[in-house]
Structures are given as C-alpha cells and as structure tokens.
Amino acid sequence: MLPVLEGVVMELQDCALPLLREVIPTDKEDVAFKDLDAAILVGSMPRREGMERKDLLKANVAIFKSQGEALDKYAKKTVKVLVVGNPANTNCLIAAKSAPSIPKENFSCLTRLDHNRASSQVALRCGIAPNNVKNVIIWGNHSSTQYPDVHHCKVNVQGKDETAFDAVKDDAWLKGEFISTVQQRGAAVIKARKLSSAMSAAKAICDHMRDIWTGTPEGEFISMGVYSTGNSYGVPEDLIYSFPISIKDKNWKIVDGLPINDFSKAKMEATAAELVEERDTALSFLGV
Ligand code: LMR
C-alpha cells in the first residue's frame, strides 16, 4: 500500500490545508502511532464474497489487537481513538482491550454516518435542510441491526420546533421504511457505487472528531459508539454500543433519562444481542 499512500500525500498537499504542517506516510507502527493526540483507524479487512462473518471477525481481531497494542505503547495516554473500519464496534472494543494503559473512554466508533443519514432522511421527507433536524439517535451496532430512533428528535419547520412524528405526519414511514433505509444505506451505497461510502464517511469522521474537540451545543446530542459499562439503559456491559451523547471539555456523557417505549426497547435489545455475539466470537479468537 505504500505507493498508494504517495497518492494520498499528494492529495493532502493539493488541498492546501492551512493547518497541515507535515504528512508522514509509513507502514511502521512505531512511527505511525508515536505521540498521537488523535487516531482514526480506517483500515480493516473488508468482507469478500464467500467469506463467513466469523472469518471476517478473525482477520479484524488480529488487526485491531495489533493497533491497540501499538497505541498502548507509542501514543499519548490522552489519545482519542475513533474506529471506522468494520465491524467498527467490535474492532473498537478489541483495540480498547489491547491498550490497557489508555482509558476505555478514549475509544469510540463511528455511528455519526448513520446519525447523519437519519437526520437527512427526515429532512428530505419534510423538505427542509438537515440542520433543522436535531437529536436523532442511533442505538447499537453500525450494522443492519442498528436502531435509528426519532422519538426524541426535534424538527424545526418554519421556525417552530416539532416532534418528528408531527413534522413528518407519517408514523408508518417513520416506524418502517425510514428505519430500514438507514439500516441498509451502507449496503445501498456499495451496490450503486461498487465501492463503500467515501465522502459521507469522511464528513461524518470530521463531525465526530470536531464534536469531541469542541463539544456539543447545550440541549443537543449526537450518536457515537462508546463503552457501555455503567449505562442506565440496561444495555449489556463491556460492549461498544452507540448511544445519544453530549460532549464537554473533550469528555463524552451518555444522555440519560430519555423515556424508551416497548417498540424502541425491542430494537435496542436486538442490536445489543448482535454485539454480544460479535464480542464473544472476537474474544474467543483472542483466547480470552
Ligand atoms: C457504510 O455504512 O457506508 C459502511 O460502513 C458500509 C461498509 O460495509 O463499508
């Protein structure tokens, strides 16, 4: 991949970014991870035709164990790690477990892409810009079991805040097609482009990292996959699970106390069950 990296370096230079001082292309972990403040782990083994989910997990456990160990050894203890490569939640958990000297709270996985997809679907349906849709939630896994939840969403229509259900005026769509569209969006992009999402994923990574550094506005939350231990929603412990999150001073907090109805509860449990299974399979490869 080193010749490919040369192309990436050229593109970065060609962006003429005012804050970019230096680019160090390398395939050496001790160089790549040295003194990092932020790590965005994008690379993972993609699923190929005929590959079992188990085989995919096995290959990725090896990659993220090695990257976690390298973070533990070379990065700053304050490093913020964002895992993007799929299966992102479980890869993130393995990286965190492989870096015992770095707090688990410093690790998160990307569900902002799903969050943006959900906001955008609601906005398109209402004929408004997506920045008028706040507080959608992605619960669980960055997979087709994720639960895009609009029960706490605020939609600003012509200067007035409304619930998503009042703004969209189509409960059946919100409880059906909306959810499956967001759940299947990654696969739909791959089908159309013959490649995984690129620009929207990059935008979501920027949104995620910017919010960690600068915080979320009062009363607003975003979605990210974080360590589940200690959550108040009854999600099993020791998972990387996507929750509604607010951020201040570079520390995230799960937004507590949102009422959860039976419809939501069942969907939150289904995606948690998938993550428990992924975690247990991944840990068995580590011999834990
Ligand atoms: C996406 O959501 O666009 C990607 O995670 C899909 C994929 O499997 O690469």
From TrEMBL:
It comes from Danio rerio. It comes from the Eukaryota. It is an enzyme of class 1 (oxidoreductase). Belongs to the LDH/MDH superfamily. MDH type 2 family. Keywords: NAD, Oxidoreductase, Tricarboxylic acid cycle. Substrate binds at residues 47, 53, 86, 117. This is Malate dehydrogenase. The gene is mdh1ab. NAD(+) binds at residues 60, 84-86. Signal peptide: none annotated. Catalyzes the reduction of aromatic alpha-keto acids in the presence of NADH. Plays essential roles in the malate-aspartate shuttle and the tricarboxylic acid cycle, important in mitochondrial NADH supply for oxidative phosphorylation. Catalyzes the reduction of 2-oxoglutarate to 2-hydroxyglutarate, leading to elevated reactive oxygen species (ROS). The keyword NAD applies. GO terms for molecular function: L-malate dehydrogenase (NAD+) activity. The active site is at 142 (proton acceptor). Coiled coil: none annotated. InterPro entries: L-lactate/malate_DH (IPR001557), Lactate/malate_DH_C (IPR022383), Lactate/malate_DH_N (IPR001236), Lactate_DH/Glyco_Ohase_4_C (IPR015955), Malate_DH_AS (IPR001252), Malate_DH_NAD-dep_euk (IPR011274), Malate_DH_type2 (IPR010945), NAD(P)-bd_dom_sf (IPR036291). It catalyses: (S)-malate + NAD(+) = oxaloacetate + NADH + H(+); (S)-2-hydroxyglutarate + NAD(+) = 2-oxoglutarate + NADH + H(+). One of its GO terms (biological process) is malate metabolic process. The lineage of its organism: Eukaryota, Metazoa, Chordata, Craniata, Vertebrata. Residues 5-107 form the Lactate/malate dehydrogenase N-terminal domain. Its EC number is 1.1.1.37. Residues 111-285 form the Lactate/malate dehydrogenase C-terminal domain.
